[in-house]
Amino acid sequence: xxxxxxxxxxxxxxxxxxxxxxxxxxxxxxxxxxxxxxxxxxxxxxxxxxxxxxxxxxxxxxxxxxxxxxxxxxxxxxxxxxxxxxxxxxxxxxxxxxxxxxxxxxxxxxxxxxxxxxxxxxxxxxxxxxxxxxxxxxxxxxxxxxxxxxxxxxxxxxxxxxxxxxxxxxxxxxxxxxxxxxxxxxxxxxxxxxxxxxxxxxxxxxxxxxxxxxxxxxxxxxxxxxxxxxxxxxxxxxxxxxxx
Length: 244
Known about the structure:
This protein is an alpha+beta fold. The chain has one domain (2-242): Endonuclease/exonuclease/phosphatase (Deoxyribonuclease I, Chain A, 4-Layer Sandwich), CATH 3.60.10.10. Helices cover 17% and strands 29% of the residues. The chain has 7 helices and 14 strands. The strands form 3 sheets. A 6-stranded mixed β-sheet has the order 3-4-2-1-14-13. A hairpin with a 5-residue loop joins β6 and β7 (96-102). α2 (114-123) packs parallel to α3. The chain is globular and about 50 Å long.
């Protein structure tokens, strides 16, 4: 199974061909237009399931599945955390709970970015199980911006998840340290000299140990589409994941 998260900077329908070349099973797409606008070219592979969250029809959180995979919103979705959603993923190589993330809420006085993730993981903590759990998307955060005295910074989020057996796929696979990543996922103003790592896929240990590849797109290829590059995680389905 391949899960790709990519902040597409709107108008995904015009950029879909580029990312579909990597044969994703699930796409998590911050800044994606609403489903009504997601009309793809007939020669492109068509989705088996789609969900979307947001108030601006041009710029919300889209989740798109292929190859017969179905996406179902878990009824405990807290709409005040607008663009972080718990989703039941079924019909693929293994079933799991996906938290699709776009950490952005400019109207929340508690904080626009990582504070949204902090609120979400506490609200959904009973769903954050050490097996069959993935969080993926644009977290809009990095340890380099931690505010030590503020509850809910990036490092606090990472520690909270790690205590529940959920780890960053990129950091595990590439043996990276939070805040010192070798592979940026975002380029401010699309400038090569302003790189940051803001996009993540966290996976429970049963899934993480079966990750075979974690790829990060390069600036030259993707800058024509977005200020973000894709983060692509490939998981090998094994008996331990496909049986209860």
